[in-house]
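Quarterly update from the structural biology core.
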Amino acid sequence: MIIDLPSTTTSQVNAKLVHLREQGGANTLGRVLTLVIVTDDGEHTEEAIDAANDASREHPCRVIVVAQGAKKAAARLDAQIRVGGDAGASEVVVLRLYGALASEGASCVIPLLLPDAPIVAWWPFEAPARPADDPIGKLAQRRITDSAADRNPIKALEARQKSYAEGDTDLAWTRLTLWRAMLASSLDLPPFEKVTSAAVTGEADSPSTDLLAAWLAYRLKIPVTRYKATEGKGICSVELERASGVVKLDRPDGKVGTLVQPGQPSRRVALQRREVRDCLAEELRRLDPDEIYEGTLAGLGKITRARASARKRPPVATPEPPASEPKPSAATARAVAKKSTKSATATKGRTKSSAATNGEVGARTSGSDSPTNGSSPKGGS
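Predicted structure, tokenized:
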């Protein structure tokens, strides 16, 4: 259900929410947090709302969308309330601000916040230079940005590094979860050797590639080189140097990766590029500061950027199983069996002849030397 409230006020919007609660009962209660989406009023606004609706099925919440319109227009607030099937497992309040109200998003949000519930602010596209100093950012315990959606992703990531405050995070970092898990699990397999260096290859404007390289430099304390890929999207490959050889995780098509390790067969792993709704749902699972992300931002200054495009390394050789000997033909097998039978017969004959000879010698000597023949030898007591 969608309810439009043109040229309204926050008091009227709040009163309508209370009315819906009285009509619908518990379906408008049970929210675990308030998610505030800050964006410009345009065609991409619905994309952010759809991602929030999908994430709300895991985290029921009240979604407040602050859509900033034209600042030169007359001051006006157009609101829209969505509940039921149009809001996933949440209730969505869209605030379209025009004129002088476009800069007063925090003032319009405060009356609509859920009481005693955490607040998360999300900038799905352009983000302020210092999210923690933004009026809406100051209200939130967690502040989510997306460097990859910025006009200049690499500069946006550098700005996140300089302006980091506890509670900040970036969806470019969340997209690395599968890569980090796969690389960590590959090092849990023998041989347990130290990684001496690493190389990460990805698109030139991929902030996730920079963050992955910085994470390796921060956690492993090794030199890491960041290469630009000539083809492919996002992160393309990661190589970890060890004494026994190179551990390589390659994803050329953005869907399926290949893990190659010395002495082991190649393995195909699922490395599908993650959707925004999946990354948002993951970030809403934790409301405490992300210390690993903070350390990774500090590691951005430790990576080496290569001017040339991605290097080409020969594939890691994997040991081949020894070739099995050809099976003998039926005629050859019969000949070998016949020869073995003759040899066994001859050996048996020689054994019987030897036993008979030994018996005769024993009979001749038993009368004079054997102590068991019934008489004592000469000189005995």
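Residues 178 and 184 are 10 Å apart (CA to CA).
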